[in-house]
Amino acid sequence: MAKLKITKVDGSVSEHQVTPFIEYAFEIYAKQGFHAAFRINEKQTDVYYLSWECLKAAGETVPMFGAEFIKTLKKVEVLDDDPEL
Fold first, then answer.
1. Largest alpha-carbon pair distance within the chain?
2. For residue 22, with 0-12 CB atoms within 10 Å meaning exposed, 13-18 middle and 19 or more buried, which class applies?
3. Taking the domains of the chain in order of start, what are their residue ranges?
4. Residue 83: what pLDDT?
5. How confident is the model at residue 82 (pLDDT cuts 50, 70, 90)?
């Protein structure tokens, strides 16, 4: 599984594992398989959606997914999973 490194406009940085639950939530949203969505569509909006799900799962209070949430983001990076974990 991948990890996301989320940098917000307020300067806070956090890393989040893309868990099976996050993948499931994404597939419901995207109406297609997780891996296919990124191979075929390659939309950055999908990465932002994953970051929204990750932050919600971490217990953060976030605006509804959309422009207001996107405005809180400075950068979202997709990282390889740590093989040591």
1. 36
2. buried
3. 3-79
4. 54
5. low
